[in-house]
Design a protein that fits this description.
Strands 1, 2, 3, 4, 5, 6, 7, 8, 9 and 10 form a ten-stranded mixed beta sheet that branches. By secondary structure, the chain is an alpha/beta fold. α11 (316-325) packs antiparallel against α12 (329-348). The protein is 42% helix and 16% strand. The radius of gyration is 21 Å and the shape is globular.
Length: 349
């Protein structure tokens, strides 16, 4: 087997409790540490994460590289630094609090090298600090029911749900694929990998989906504190709306993706709209509320509401129908709050 080098990029910030588990899963890969380059990007972490990284660098001086940021750039900026310094023929990413099966890279790279695959995606699971496995449905689960190799055209026609699979850590990229991909946005804590992943899917000529669970994603700790605060940070609303606009711009070029983009838009934006209307936390000014009303109305004018999240009150169809037909945000607020109160009461009757 041709053992082309793979570069693994790890943004490091406040990871001292878990970074050793991550690194141990990488240095023991059956692909061979001599064929692996691990780029540890110190994003000005205030804890002792880098002390642990240094101990691994002493053990594997030729395989582990440390790059220090002078200013915090967020996970996107750290990944850009890694991409700029990576030398491998293949590129992948890992979060410092997760870990991989030790046979992950050998298994996937063997297939990528044999069949000239540009983008490989493998399955993953969630676990808690106590070791409990979490099982939850995901909108892209159908991508991982079997192991398949597909062309770009087949991806668009038969697997449009790829649009939901935005994480970069369960994917391996052929280096050449990334030459014309838009870099990660800097200083963005939420949704920072969405555009990057979308462009990679749309530019890859051959893609592998593997049902093998190789990546293990840690839940309920500091990493997910940021995720849990996503709705409490005003900037997050702009980040997510921008990505939805970006995706919806593809509908004329890729009509095969229209329904799935609509589904993602609804599922992704519903909670944000709820918070803007209820206006509890964060608190939006009237001007900001009106802005998001106009942008939401524009975004959902042509969205077909076919799939909606279960257990949401009121039902998204009612909310976005109000957005479509009402010329006034204040009318939408009245309708939504009434529906919300009725559906909440109904829930407990």
């Amino acid at each position: 087997m041709n053992t082309d080098k793979i570069s693994i990029i790890i943004p490091i910030f406040n990871a001292q409790d878990y970074i050793d588990t991550c690194l141990e899963s990488l240095v023991t890969q059956t692909y061979g540490i001599e064929n692996i380059e691990i780029l540890c990007i110190n994003d000005c972490t205030p804890d002792k994460s880098m002390d642990i990284v240094q101990t691994y660098k002493k053990r594997f001086p030729n395989s582990i590289k440390i790059i220090n940021h002078k200013k915090n750039k967020g996970p996107g900026g750290a990944r850009n630094t890694g991409l700029a310094n990576a030398t491998g023929a293949y590129i992948t990413f890992a979060d410092p609090d997760d870990y991989l099966d030790t046979n992950a890279y050998k298994y996937i790279l063997t297939k990528m090298q044999k069949d000239d695959i540009q983008l490989a995606c493998f399955n993953f699971d969630f676990f808690t600090n106590s070791g409990e496995k979490l099982i939850r449905p995901r909108p892209f689960d159908s991508l991982f029911t079997e192991e398949i190799e597909i062309s770009h055209d087949i991806l668009l026609s038969k697997y449009p749900e790829f649009i939901h699979s935005m994480s970069v850590w369960n994917k391996i990229y052929k280096r050449k694929l990334l030459q014309n991909i838009t870099p990660f946005p800097k200083n963005q804590l939420f949704n920072e990998d969405a555009r990057f992943s979308t462009e990679c899917f749309l530019n890859a000529s051959k893609i592998l989906f593997s049902d093998k669970i190789f990546y293990h994603y840690r839940r309920n700790h500091s990493k997910n504190t940021a995720t849990n605060k996503m709705y409490d940070v005003k900037e997050s609303y702009g980040f997510h709306l921008t990505h939805l606009k970006y995706l919806n711009a593809f509908k004329s070029k890729y009509p095969q993706l229209s329904n799935e983009i609509g589904t993602l838009s609804i599922n992704n934006w519903y909670q944000f709209i709820h918070n803007i209307i209820i206006n509890s936390n964060p608190h939006f000014t009237t001007k900001e509320q009106l802005y998001y009303f106009k942008e939401t109305k524009r975004l959902f004018t042509n969205v077909k509401i076919s799939k909606c999240p279960k257990g949401v009150y009121p039902h998204p169809k009612a909310l976005f129908l109000a957005f479509k037909i009402s010329p006034s945000f204040f009318v939408v607020k009245i309708i939504y709050k009434l529906l919300y109160k009725l559906s909440t009461l109904k829930k407990y009757l």
